[in-house]
Amino acid sequence: MDRVPTRDPKLHMYYGTHTNGKITERRFFVRTVMRDHPDATQDASSFGQAAADSIIIGALNDLELVISDPRYGKTDCNHLFINSVPTFACDPSKFIKDLKAIIYKHAIRLWKLRALEAEIRLTFQPQPTEPEFSVRVIVSNVSGHYMESHVYREVPSPVDGAPMYQGLDKDDLGPLNGQSCVQRTSPRRKLR
């Protein structure tokens, strides 16, 4: 895994290759952090959506630059991960719905850049008396024809306490339900 220079110091990009026989997989892992906090007069959910939109655009701009660089081979299954630092004091359901709409807005560009999955980690505390909890919104488009999204709560594994995905939709827990969050989002993980 090689670190790729980017224009934005808050954006970390890694280029990974894996050869399995004659086939070589190449992909970019784009990682960034949303650090800004809303001021007291700003609505937290509106702020978070605007910040997420801006970060997605910046990440896709940098990804577009490196994809056209001849030093890298043709990539596929590129992955975008945004970790939000602010804790949002709002109900996550509407916020997540609006966040998915932002990602869907960039669907064509994500597909063209072969970023088949975008994952955003958010922390919520709807009431001051409630504990904080983290949610991961994952939107993927593997086929190019249909985007699907799943929302997971980050819960400790009963085995080792490491964070794992727990699907929030009782009718469709999602393909990552019960899997480790750490192994999936680390750019050091082995390519499939």
Describe what this molecule looks like in 3D.
- By secondary structure, the chain is α+β, with helices and mostly antiparallel strands.
- The protein is built from four helices and eight strands, in the order βββαβααββββα.
- It has an eight-stranded mixed beta sheet with strand order 1-2-3-4-5-6-7-8.
- Helix 1 (44-67) runs parallel beside helix 2 (92-105).
- The protein is globular.
- It starts with a strand and ends in a 7-residue tail after the last helix.
List keywords for this structure.
single chain, about 190 residues, alpha+beta, 8-stranded mixed beta sheet, about 25% helix, disordered C terminus
Number of strands: 8
Using only C-alpha atoms, the radius of gyration works out to 17 Å
Binned, the helix content reads: 25-40%
The SSE order reads EEEHEHHEEEEH
Biggest sheet statistics: 8 strands, mixed
Large-scale geometry: globular
Structurally, the number of domains stands at 1
SS content category: alpha+beta
In spatial order, strands of the major sheet run 1-2-3-4-5-6-7-8
Helix segment tally: 4
Low-pLDDT runs of 5+ residues are: 187-192
Overview in brief:
With 192 residues, the chain is α+β, with helices and mostly antiparallel strands. The protein is built from 4 helices and 8 strands. Strand 7 and strand 8 form a beta hairpin.
